[in-house]
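Q: Sequence in, structure out?
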Amino acid sequence: MIAGSVTDDGVPTVELHVGGQPWQGTIDTGFNGQLELPEQLRGHVNAQLVGRATSLLAANQQIEEDLFLIDFPFDGRVVRAQATFSDSDTLLIGTGLLTEYRLGIDFPARTVTLDRD
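A: Exactly. Output:
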């Protein structure tokens, strides 16, 4: 199980350790991909270019970006996942990474749980 919290702004987050340091990962239920990682993590996840991906953002905005296959530390194991990289310091966890998990968000208690089925 992974436990996290809801920020003061109402954002569900979990702490993940990648590249030898802790990162706050935002659980983005509107993102059906797997991961969007900060560019500075590219060298820590064995990134291998697999092609291009088109993403549909809010307001019907489309973007095209490079898509990578990576080795990502998640829930005590290393999983093969697809990721894009951005120039931000935000780590986004999409629903595509959570297909084996039950996501619980308790906004009043400000808790987040990810339980693997």
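Residues 2-116 form a domain with the Cathepsin D, subunit A; domain 1 fold (CATH 2.40.70.10).
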